[in-house]
Amino acid sequence: MLTVEGISFSYREKPVLQDVDLEVRKGEIIGILGPNGCGKTTLLKLLNRNLRPQKGRVLMEGVDLEEMSKRKIARQIAVVPQSNEIRFAFTVRDIVTMGRMPFLSQFQGESHDDMRIVEEAMEKTSIKEFADRLISNMSGGERQRVIIARALAQRPEIILLDEPTLHLDINHQFEVLDLVKRLSQEEGLTVVIVSHDLPMVVKYCDRMVLIHDHRIHALGTPQEVLTPDNMRAVFNIDAVLEHDTVLNAPAVKIIGSCNRR
Fold first, then answer.
1. What's the pTM value of the predicted model, to 2 decimals?
2. Opening angle at CA 79, ends 73 and 83, nearest 5
């Protein structure tokens, strides 16, 4: 579905990503993980042409993103950014309606069909009761659901989420990721999650990517990727992957830092 072929990217000649190859499969939830500063967010920006690779290319259904307009990309790929600070007095409905912008011409207003899609997006993310509330008056978890609803209103095939649980209380972290999992299953959405929160995200991913030293260090299922050696090399922790019998999902047990010895 979304294919990365040999991309490299640098900021002011400082390498961030080198020779990265990756295929994102239709309908999966794939996590891109690694320590802060390893290039996760840069890779996410390359996946929707917010940045352009200095080497290699990114393909959507076999078409190079360089050959697609920003509007066409936005109709297929939606982004939930790391920061959702909105400083203007917009209501929840205003924000979600912005997701229809890729489908409107410059002076065209929203149609009845557009507003139906907006209402559906709010319904699916359980924020319809807040539709007329100002976004500035909402909690972090509620606000994140609004931004996800805005992404849904784009009717994308792929949603890219950059640190979706950052700065959220633990209960809101579960709420957001449970929502993402449900939407992936019910809507057939392909989901790419960038995160440094290994213990939380592992419970939700079909496959995982570990980035280390500007390159993909490991790629596969959580069981294939999260070996003690890989977690030691990438995160500098002693940890093992177990099975959570309550959630019926993988669980990372962190023993401690490798520096504790």
1. 0.93
2. 145
